[in-house]
Amino acid sequence: MKSGFVKYIFSVLLVSLSLHAISQKTSLKTKKQPNIILLLVDDLGWIDIGSYGSSFYETPNIDKLTKEGIKFTNAYSACNVCSPSRASILTGKYPARLHLTDWIEGYQKPFAKLLPPAWTMYLPLEETTIAEVLKKKNYATASIGKWHLGDDVKYYPEHQGFDLNIAGNYAGSPPTYFSPYRIPRLKNGDKGEYLTDRLTDEAIKFMDEKKNNPFFLYLPYYAVHTPIQAKEEYVQTFKSKINPSSPQQNPVYAAMIKSLDESVGRLLQYVKEKGIEDNTIIIFTSDNGGLIRSKNPITSNLPLREGKGTAYEGGVRVPLIVKWKGTIKENTQSDVPVIGTDLFPTLAALTNSNISSIGNIDGVNIAPLLSGSQTLKRDALYWHYPHYHSEGATPHTSIRNGDYKLIWFYETGKKELYNLKKDVGEQDNLIEKEPKIAAMLMKKIIAWKHETGAQEPQLNPQYDIKRVNQTAPHQRVVKDPLASKED
What we know:
This protein is α/β, with parallel strands linked by helices. It contains 12 helices and 18 strands.
């Protein structure tokens, strides 16, 4: 608790000094509490945006957002799958500490070598979310979109600090992107209405109602997660653009991204037209890396290795863009490693919210980076995934310390070490060449796992080498009184 308090005080001093430095160059045009729009895209890869390097997908509005704010090139999700990442963004804590380490409800591999621990399939109500922090500062709060942090209604957004919950959970079967949606907390629109457009409509409606008060809009889009569905006219456009030599060439996925980009453009235009642009922080990021799939490929994360569900950079490196007109210098870039847990303490600091009583915050306030600093006081970043995933992941823990990343696989005990500055594609395993660095990173992992109370996978008494690849998702049980009703 004491170390957490000292960290918080230090962070507040840093942000105060950094924002004071900014104000010497660009006067702060308002002393109001800033509005916050947090856009969380589902499964959007690091390279799936024009400003991050894609030449196939069209993202002019997201690219505009990049030019008007700061782009992070070494941003990470807190997990290689969605639910843990979302929990970390909202609480500032690592999934390992929360014991929420897989997507809800995860996959079963009943004959694999290891069994996952008895992990938590919801965001506990005892945890403090950023929405709850901001409500104490008189913010209006809304969660509009995919929640995925507990199927029982008692764990829904309205019980986690949000005044408004729209489209929070889906019932049993996956939702569709065209109305009727199969989302109990979202009334169906006209037949053919597109889900991404609809969520943006709801977001604008919320902001319009609250624009004269500080608001926190958490907008976790269902896009661009499967099922891969898009507007047919956009699909045809991208079919004509396909380049067989390009690693990215799925026209339906590209069309989904185009709709997403249009929604971002609508939101940017709204805050500008309403005169609240100077007093609105806009954050754009993804919950994990892009989904590849060997059969029927969806996207490519090259030059990163692999994708969603794996321990490699393609599974955890994500885009992160932050805009605050008049406060954050436009068209800037930070190469400092940051992670989803950092958003909680950063937003708390930027809104002068006191979080000193909340223990064990793993995130670091990155406001100094928003003001141009190229350093951040942090030891390392960690990932812990004691599970299997259909995309090929096996239980592992990994660490990034400086330019080095070490992955420890539990099935075999194998360790891989990479210098990401020289080898972002993780092709040259340095484990034999750099034994001292590997030993140092292993020591850090062990200490971190102990400090966070990370759960361990266990040996499986039903292990059957002939059937290890058999997988099945858990049976989804949704406890929502609206789940059986048709809107």
